[in-house]
Design brief:
331 residues, alpha/beta, Rossmann fold, 17 strands, 30% helix
Length: 331
């Protein structure tokens, strides 16, 4: 996992401040002392067979790479065994040389709901906050983005990204082991910033929105996806204890409330692109993620409620712009 090419590319650019901090962030985010399983995950990464792809797919539901001829059975088995060693796979799906990584989330459904409503990504520098293994980073690259930076503090997801990168080999895509709070303040370097499935995990949603705003160039676009509830202006659910068995859920606003939060934090033209109820067809246990999933988090007698009695997960996609006039990036 060599980040030096990224550091070198960022030197003497608007991302230089981050380049200077990145070595320390990598040391902390990929610390063997802090993450006892990291050595095992890296051993799995090293065990992946060397296979040269004939093609890569970044613009289809199953992101991945393949060949014109099937792999020999022993090579395919070795590939599948190594990839399974990085269980659990949360966001996807992926397919590598005929091995279908059937992830917990059908993240392609989320991409399908938002892609038509956002500003075209062609030529843009994009930040994906809380990107997991980087599924949407690849889709952003497939949509024409010039550079995509994903950040996620979970080292397993970072290793999963590098497992894909071994075969996709795209130097425009990176996943950094960091959270939004580690991005230099007021960086204003990204044309589009995505925050999907993060806001409700933040104790201060306003601070999160301000952090996202300060990552954007003038006129750049925020694409925000988060849990919401039904209701009007001011309606907000603050779960007592757990929500859908998650202990770190803090604020679930209505769409109208969330639009007000965005205006309050300086965003312009906030608007709802999509609202959808999450179903067990979209989030479920699979052989690649064998732990409990959404079906276990809903009331079996009334699936419209969580096991705690709250409204079942309902997700909105919101778009808004930072103040100012966006100008295309000079190649």
């Amino acid at each position: 996992m060599d980040y030096q090419p990224l550091i070198d590319r960022w030197r003497d650019t608007e991302l230089d401040r981050w380049a200077q901090r990145l070595p320390q962030q990598l040391a902390q985010g990929l610390s063997h002392q802090r993450y006892g399983d990291l050595a095992r995950w890296l051993a799995v990464l090293d065990s992946l067979p060397d296979i040269a792809p004939d093609y890569c797919t970044l613009d289809r539901p199953r992101v991945g790479a393949g060949g014109h001829q099937p792999l020999p059975p022993h090579t395919r088995a070795a590939l599948e065994q190594s990839l399974m060693g990085l269980h659990p796979w949360r966001k996807g799906p992926f397919e590598l040389f005929g091995v279908h990584i059937d992830t917990e989330w059908r993240s392609d459904w989320k991409w399908q709901r938002l892609q038509a409503g956002i500003a075209p990504l062609s030529g843009r520098r994009v930040l994906d906050v809380g990107c997991g293994s980087g599924y949407h980073c690849w889709r952003m690259l497939g949509a024409g983005a010039a550079e995509v930076i994903g950040i996620d503090p979970t080292p397993l997801f970072v290793v999963q990204f590098w497992a894909l990168q071994k075969y996709l080999q795209r130097p425009e895509a990176w996943v950094i082991p960091a959270g939004i709070e580690q991005v230099p303040a007021k960086l204003q370097a990204f044309d589009t910033v995505f925050s999907m499935g993060v806001l409700y995990h933040r104790r201060s949603p306003m601070d999160h929105l301000l952090e996202l705003r300060d990552c954007l160039r003038p006129g750049g676009q925020l694409v925000l996806e988060t849990l919401v509830i039904e209701g009007g202006v001011g309606a907000t659910l603050v779960p007592e204890g757990r929500y859908a068995r998650m202990g770190n859920v803090w604020f679930l606003p209505s769409c109208d409330t969330l639009l007000g939060w965005l205006r309050k934090t300086g965003f312009e033209r906030p608007r709802v692109l999509d609202v959808a109820t999450t179903t067990p067809d979209e989030q479920r246990a699979t052989p690649w993620m064998t732990f409990h999933s959404l079906a276990n988090f809903l009331d079996p007698a009334n699936p419209s409620r969580t096991v705690e009695g709250y409204p079942a997960p309902r997700r909105a996609v919101i778009a808004a712009e930072a103040a100012g006039s966006w100008q295309p990036r000079v190649p």
